[in-house]
Design a protein that fits this description.
Blueprint lengths: L7 H7 L8 E2 L29 H9 L5 E3 L2 H7 L8 E5 L5 H8 L3 E5 L11 E5 L11 H12 L4 E5 L20 E6 L12 E4 L2 H11 L6 H12 L1 H24 L6 E3 L2 E5 L3 H10 L2 E2 L1 E4 L2 E6 L4 H12 L2
Parallel strand pairs: 1-11, 3-4, 3-5, 5-6, 6-7
Antiparallel strand pairs: 2-8, 7-8, 9-10, 10-13, 12-13
């Protein structure tokens, strides 16, 4: 299995520092996520009900009727390769590594692309994380739809992973859904800070959603996750405030890194990406101070998530000054 952000317990053991004494900036999850209230005891005693309010809340939030709830967008990433015969798959890279891994495991021919050399002419499937994880780079809606049209002419797919797009939801391709061959993935883990729910959504034409639903089987999402997600999706006031807060926090993080000779090469409201040949050294030095970042080796780079409290910001600043 691939390694991702988090894994705090491993680093706590490696650096001999208790888990409670770490500042984990490795995941890109909103550290001040939607405030989950105390839940009624009955929430833990019921099996999931597909006819609850979740889908209505999601359809209103995402502004499309064509949705399927999945146990984290990771579930869809794993299942989609099983729904095509052997295909030529291009992934704009670097990107969330599970996309390439899952298509390769299913026997497809996978190649890495850059934004500059992307041409769907020789592809059956094109995958883009938008905004990109970890670089934060974006593409215009017009370009994405051009690629989709080129692929659709050969019954191909454009898969757009929008896990980090919620703070700029106007840029989502969900406004163009449904279209044959267009698959959009969304997550409640990042913007809402609810990674522990393991809940995401797929938007696609009805036939593909039906195939995914049959493959998942009954009750793929816990009743408690559905209950919490419904409330979060309906909380428009919190969403509006959070978009403003994340924008300010993203700019603050960018400025802090620049001030400490680590100018970001990209990023979004939830993280900043620093490409540097010193990435491993910086990662190690910060870990020695109890701060966990996400280290990448291709290219050598670091991703910094947002601190959650003012004391966390001050701790990161002090650690950067000690490098």
């Amino acid at each position: 299995m691939l390694e991702h952000g988090g894994r705090l317990r491993q680093f706590a053991a490696r650096y001999k520092r208790p888990e409670a004494d770490w500042l984990d900036l490795s995941t890109g999850i909103n550290p001040t996520g939607w405030p989950v209230p105390d839940l009624p005891a009955t929430v833990w005693q019921r099996l999931p009900d597909n006819d609850d309010e979740l889908m209505r809340a999601a359809q209103n939030y995402y502004q499309t009727q064509y949705l399927l709830a999945v146990p984290g967008s990771q579930a869809a990433i794993q299942l989609l390769p099983e729904l095509r015969s052997t295909s030529r798959v291009g992934i704009i890279s670097p990107a969330y590594a599970e996309h390439a891994h899952c298509w390769q495991q299913a026997g497809h021919h996978v190649q890495s692309l850059t934004l500059e050399n992307t041409d769907p002419a020789d592809l059956d499937v094109l995958i883009i994380v938008h905004p990109n994880n970890p670089t934060g780079h974006t593409v215009s809606t017009e370009q994405l739809l051009v690629w989709h049209q080129q692929l659709q002419e050969r019954h191909g797919w454009l898969i757009v992973d929008e896990a980090f797009i919620d703070s700029h939801h106007q840029d989502s391709l969900l406004t163009s859904s449904p279209r044959e061959g267009l698959v959009v993935l969304r997550s409640l883990g990042k913007f809402f800070g609810l990674g522990g729910l393991r809940l995401g959504f797929v938007s696609a034409p009805t036939q593909l959603l039906s195939q995914l639903e049959q493959t998942l089987g009954p009750w793929p999402i816990a009743h408690a996750s559905r209950y919490i997600a419904t409330m979060a999706l309906q909380d428009i006031s919190w969403q509006q405030q959070t978009r403003q807060q994340l924008k300010q926090a993203g700019l603050r993080l960018e400025q802090l890194l620049r001030q400490n000779n680590l100018p970001p090469d990209g990023g979004c409201d939830l993280f900043q990406w620093v490409k540097t040949g010193k990435a491993a050294s910086v990662h190690h030095q910060l870990a020695e101070q109890g701060i966990l970042t996400r280290l990448f080796d291709k290219p050598e780079s670091l991703r910094f998530g947002l601190p959650g409290t003012e004391s966390d910001w001050q701790r990161l600043q002090a650690a950067l000054e000690n490098l």
